[in-house]
Specification:
It is a single chain. By secondary structure, the protein is α+β, with helices and mostly antiparallel strands. 29% of the residues lie in helices and 39% in strands. It is built from two helices and nine strands. The strands form two sheets. Strands 3, 4, 5, 7 and 8 form a five-stranded antiparallel β-sheet that branches. The chain has a four-stranded mixed β-sheet with strand order 6-2-1-9, with no helix packed on it. Strand 1 and strand 2 form a beta hairpin. The longest helix is centred in the first third of the chain and has 41 residues. The chain is rod-shaped. It starts with a helix and ends with a strand.
Length: 180
């Protein structure tokens, strides 16, 4: 009890009182700075998560692939779904089919999809706009070169080029035959 009285007597002196108030202010400033650091870290984490969600990629999925003869032409048919995982819209500007061959001669051939399929209500037409957190799906047909044997093709690679210069690639190694 005596020590508390001595402490009080020492604090009542003006020179010690000013030092005690200054020390208390320093402690309060340190606590305030610690809280500010925690808030800044939380804000940074949220900003990074938002940037990651804004710039998420478009993922592609093959629902079905097959070869079909239509109007005398052999066509590679792709039923695909593209999912935009970003919080901003994106678009598929163009799509190409790359054929990779088994032989050592030509490595691959690039093909464009058919335009204006007459009765195809499920066609995916480029440019295809994909909203934020949305999907686009449909069927794309690629006429294959005359004389091409499907057994010579090692891989069918569907490349979708997005507005932001990224490429979404889907691959199929075997395609079943389905004639209309």
């Amino acid at each position: 009890m005596q020590s508390l009285t001595d402490l009080y007597a020492a604090l009542v002196k003006p020179e010690n009182f000013i030092a005690a108030v200054s020390a208390g202010g320093a402690v309060a400033s340190a606590v305030w700075a610690g809280i500010a650091i925690l808030q800044a870290r939380a804000t940074r984490r949220l900003a990074l998560e938002d940037a990651k969600a804004r710039d998420a990629n478009v993922d592609g999925y093959l629902n079905d692939t097959y070869l079909q003869t239509r109007n005398g032409l052999l066509q590679a048919v792709f039923d695909c779904t593209y999912v935009n995982k970003a919080t901003h819209p994106n678009s598929i500007v163009r799509v190409e089919l790359a054929l990779h061959f088994m032989s050592q001669g030509a490595s691959h051939v690039l093909l464009a999809p058919t335009k204006g399929v007459e009765t195809e209500s499920l066609a995916l037409v480029c440019p295809a706009h994909i909203g934020a957190k949305a999907t686009a799906n449909g069927i794309m047909r690629f006429p294959l070169p005359k004389g091409l044997l499907p057994a010579d093709v090692k891989r069918y690679e569907l490349n979708a080029y997005l507005v932001d210069e990224r490429v979404c690639t889907l691959s199929a190694h075997l395609m079943r035959r389905m004639d209309a």
